[in-house]
Design a protein that fits this description.
single chain, 270 residues, alpha+beta, five-stranded antiparallel sheet, 9 helices, 7 strands, disordered N terminus
Length: 270
Amino acid sequence: MKWMGLGICLLFLAPLGAQRRREPQPAARAPQLVPASDKNPYTSPPDVALGKQYFLGRCAYCHGAEGEGGRGVSLQTGEYRRGGLDGELFNTIRNGIPGSEMPATRLYDQEIWRIVGFLRTISTAGVAEKPTGDPAAGKIVYDTKGGCAACHVVNGAGGSLGPELSQIGLRRPLRYLRESLVKPEADIPVNYRGLVVTLKSGQTVTGVRLNEDDYSLQLREVGDNLRSLQKSDIRAIRYDRPSLMPSYSSLSPKELDDLVAYLNSLRGQS
């Protein structure tokens, strides 16, 4: 009888537990916005210095220590796709950008304003930089002699062995674009580091690591083919290959200037 009583109790408790699991989740909070015309009340040198510290702690991982760009866009051009007024910058930092890697923040309002103040000190660092080449001629180099489209996507077209370049002009300054062409191993995004796999059969497979577990390795080969290898078939894996991207130092100075100008012009489709 005791077991029967326990069974009856569990029978009555089960629907309650199921009902709790079916409770609707709270709706996502609407973005909290300040008027775009709001002026930054924290613009003194000590406020800007604090803003730099907040920036280094929260933003530099994606945008670079000086806002030069990286995983996130460059902040040195003074161009902000969601507006460059103080209030607009505040809202972007506070609420993030839905559908992107830019998250909302839990910083206090005064801390966000201080970051805005710091952004003002770096927002024109890249404005004076102007490409000397011809973007139209650079696109010809990109499509033909450079062969860049085999590995990079621009506005939905191209290969995916290397990083997408649709917004590279926003993300990287001119000096970085040039260096990436003549010395590509100087800064390789971690998701695009190359590797060379030697199989027990003697075959060599070169590509970019996509995923790996105790039993298998998935990679994207040069040529953009996806491949899965069993580790039992692998003799050796070398992860220290500097770069799968070749150096374009053999381009003429004009071709290099033109190619840099074309890359700088890539700022995403509007």
